[in-house]
Specification:
Elements (H helix, E strand, L loop, with lengths): L18 E6 L4 E10 L4 E5 L10 E4 L4 E3 L1
Antiparallel strand pairs: 1-2, 1-5, 2-3, 3-4
Amino acid sequence: MSEWMKKGPLEWQDYIYKEVRVTASEKNEYKGWVLTTDPVSAKFSLSPRLECSGEISAFCNLCLAVSSL
């Protein structure tokens, strides 16, 4: 079990404004900055840059698609 799976939804806030590498269950890998987390839907938004003008490149569902963070 990966470390993020042991964390509760409120602990996901520790990842905000940090650069992460996400490996999804289908083995796709995404790298970027966590902008927001939503403990209700278990999702976070990931941006390739930490600039306000950067586009959000992925929305990840922490319970379903992510195998490691």
